[in-house]
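FAQ: What does the model actually see?

It sees only this:
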Amino acid sequence: MIRALYTAASGMSAQQMNLDTIANNLANSSTTGFRQLRLQFQDMVYQNLITPGAAQSQSTVSAGLQIGLGTKPVATEVIMTQGPLNETDNQYDVAISGAGFFQVQRPDGTIAYTRAGQFHLNNQGTIVTTEGDPLLPNITIPPNAGAITITPYGVVNATLPGQQNPSQLGQIQLATFPNPGGLESMGSNLLQATLSSGDPVLGNPGGSEGLGTLQQNYLENSNVDVVTEFVQMVLAQRAYESNSKVIKAADDMYSQVNNMTR
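And it is asked to produce this:
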C-alpha cells in the first residue's frame, strides 16, 4: 500500500508537468514560428520480488514477479511539423516552406536558430529580428534602395538609383540538423543546438541539403493544433484524477489495517 501511494504520486507529478507543457503550447498557439513541445515519459525502477528467469526447480523457470514504482518525465521533444503560412504586407517578412531554420547572432556572439521570419532593418540598414539580432549571413540594405525582393532560393535583390536591373544584396542561408527535435528552446522564438540535435548543416534554400524554400510577404504560424492540445489536456486531467483515486484507495486500505488493532 505504501508503494501504491508513492507510485500514484509520481503519476500525479508527471501529469502536472504534462499540463504545464500543454498550457505553454496553447499560450503560444498564435506565436510566429513557435514549435509545439511534447513531454515524454518513462517508467521508473522495478522491484524484483522474483527475478525473471530464476530457477524454481530443476525443470521450471520463473516468469518473475516485478512491481513497478511509477513514472517520470524524461524529455521535452520539439515537434517540427510545418505551420500554416499567413500572408502579410511587410516585404521583410519571410516564411520557410519546408525544412530549415534562419540563423541569427545573439548579443553574446553565439548563434541561435529560428523559424520566425519577422525581420526588419536596424539603424544601419542591417536585416535583424524583432529582438535586434542580425540575420546571418549579414545583409545590409542601402538607404536609397527601391523595392526589395527575396527569391524562393534566398537571393535578396533591390533596385538601386540609376540602375535598371535589380542588384543582388545578399544570400540568405538556412540551417538544418540531423535531429531537429533535439534543439533546445531559449525563448524569444529562438532555439539552440545541443549534443542531441547535432551540428548544423548550412545551405541555400531549396538546395541539395533538403532545405525548404522561402516565401516573401508570408509568416509561418505556430504549428500547435489547438483541438489536439485540448484533447491532450482532457487526457492529462483524467490521468491525474485516476492517480488521485489510487492514493485515496491506498489510504483507505492503510486506514483499515491501522483500525484492525482497535
